[in-house]
Design goal:
Blueprint (H helix, E strand, L loop, with lengths): L1 H10 L1 H13 L10 H14 L3 E5 L7 E6 L8 E7 L19 E3 L2 E3 L3 H22 L5 E7 L9 H7 L1 H4 L3 E3 L12 E3 L1 E2 L1 E10 L5 E2 L9 H10 L22 H9 L4 H8 L10 H10 L2 E9 L9 E2 L2 E10 L5 H14 L6 E8 L2 E2 L5 H14 L4 E3 L9 H4 L6 E2 L17 E3 H16 L3 H10 L1
Parallel strand pairs: 3-6, 3-7, 7-18, 8-17
Antiparallel strand pairs: 1-2, 2-6, 4-5, 5-19, 9-16, 10-14, 10-15, 11-13, 12-14
The structure holds zinc ion.
């Protein structure tokens, strides 16, 4: 059965490529508000054509969410959910594209378009998999849920509330996130989580206006206030100095350590590319990877005060601003840490410094021993014929926590269309057509070989 399904998918490759090009030709730039409604509607149509009942849900002051559902007969057959986003990054700078970003040109076995890798190729592969399974088997043997948002590239500001309000429509045994892809050596990459984040702006103010610096003995200098305050947050030993910050940080489990030990890490190449003699604190190998994925960070992203033009200007600035992001791990919670940060500054004598908070994401992880995660990893290995690289989490952030933490559903990402030269967020974004077709095969295999009762047995065996 699987063999004929795989052959059928190969025979339909041209049609699947055309569907994806159609989706890519519809711009959907969330940061610029371009083509959003049209793209949501097109997506709904493509889903309906594949036999997925789909609906566009308007979001107050936000971009619509497209939800899709497949009822695969009996409830006991289980349910898999998919998260994707239909919005894309702005295509600029346009002059660096070899063909226009929304033309979806094909060259050398690749499709070039803004969003083709991040994330339209993945959502389309999932839709085509459903279509193929229905064509060959008559019906999809399990239930499926599709959650496709239109604001991922601007930080998913409305997704948490949407998930809260529509939790009853989103239930599933496990979710497959955006998709990932393969690495330099064509090994499939699977990720099982994401770090959290808080993003803040610090504002220090002094006099009503800039002053002559000769008045320095009398007038407070917000640039110094800010620098002193920042230096209480992290020390030259790279440790965050806010008391309690590390309380909810947990060491990697044995299984996670093993995954890190097995994970490829081209550290010399990375250092060379960045022009670094060594990583911070001389970190190497396993310890470097552990720091990358398992430690919280405090990063000054921007710092601004006073005169920065040519020559000298003896000025005493009236304000200073810094932007910082803090990446969170394990059980660290944004709201609790924001409160800790404020209290810390007050305790250190910096209650004059205003803290404005922008975004907060919880960290989220699914254990590699979770039965659904294990099923997912095994299926990737089966379809790709290559041992996957499994990362317990990523160093970046994503709204996984809404499904993983709030709904208690395991989440994994993998089997997607990306490869190292996909140029995600950059000019000439592209995917290889062979990766797209393989991704369709993977999803088709995932939804036709899923047996929840087997998962329960794996869980009991531990
Ligand atoms: Zn992106």
């Amino acid at each position: 059965m699987i063999g004929s399904l795989m052959r059928y998918i190969e025979s339909k490759a041209d049609e699947y490529v055309e569907d994806l090009r159609k989706l890519c030709r519809q711009p959907s730039v969330s940061a610029q508000g371009v083509g959003i409604e049209e793209c949501a509607e097109l997506l709904r149509e493509l889903m309906e054509e594949a036999g997925i009942s789909a609906r566009v849900y308007p979001v107050k002051e936000g971009n619509p969410v497209v939800l899709g559902e497949v009822r695969g007969g009996k409830e006991k057959n289980g349910c898999i959910g998919f998260y994707n986003h239909y919005d894309v990054q702005p295509p600029e700078p346009l002059e660096l594209w070899e063909t226009p970003p929304f033309e979806a040109a094909i060259r050398d076995g690749k499709i070039y378009a803004r969003g083709v890798s991040d994330n339209k190729g993945n959502v389309m592969a999932r839709i085509e998999a459903v279509k193929a399974v229905r064509d060959v088997l008559g019906e999809v043997p399990i239930d499926l849920k599709f959650l496709v948002e239109g604001e991922e590239e601007v930080g998913s500001p409305h997704l948490p509330n949407f998930v809260k309000g529509h939790a009853h429509l989103l239930k599933a045994d496990g979710y497959i996130w955006e998709g990932d892809g393969v690495d330099e050596k064509n090994r499939p990459v699977i990720t099982l989580g994401a770090k959290g984040i808080i993003y803040v702006e610090f504002r220090a103010r002094g006099a009503k206006r800039d002053a002559h610096s000769s008045s320095a003995p009398l007038i407070p200098n917000p640039a110094w206030r800010l620098v002193w305050a920042l230096s209480t947050i992290k020390g030259p030993d790279e440790k965050i100095r806010i008391p309690g910050w590390y309380d909810d940080v947990v060491e990697p489990s044995d299984v996670e350590r093993k995954l890190l030990e097995e994970a490829p890490f081209e550290e010399e190449e990375k250092k060379r590319e960045l022009g670094l003699k060594e990583f911070l604190g001389g970190l190497k190998g396993f310890e470097a990877l552990k720091a990358l994925y398992f430690s919280p960070t405090a990063t000054i992203c921007g710092l601004d005060a006073g005169y920065k033009g040519p020559g000298a200007k003896t000025v005493l600035p009236c304000e200073a601003v810094a932007k910082m992001d803090f990446r969170l791990v394990e059980a660290q919670k944004p709201r609790k840490l924001l409160k800790m940060l404020r209290e810390h500054l007050d305790r250190e004598g910096f209650s004059d410094i205003e803290v404005v908070s922008y975004s907060g994401y919880e960290p989220a992880k699914t254990s590699p021993s979770d039965p659904f995660a294990r099923y997912f990893i095994e299926t990737v290995e089966k379809v790709y014929g290559n041992k996957p690289v499994v990362l317990p989490t990523t160093a970046g952030t994503s709204p996984i926590y809404t499904i993983r933490n709030w709904m208690g559903i395991p989440v994994a990402s993998g089997g997607g269309v990306g490869y190292p030269r996909s140029n995600v967020h950059a000019p000439n974004e592209n995917i290889r057509i062979e990766d797209y077709i393989r991704s369709i095969k993977f999803v088709a295999t995932l939804i036709t070989s899923y047996k929840p009762e087997r998962l329960r047995k794996t869980a009991e065996k531990g």
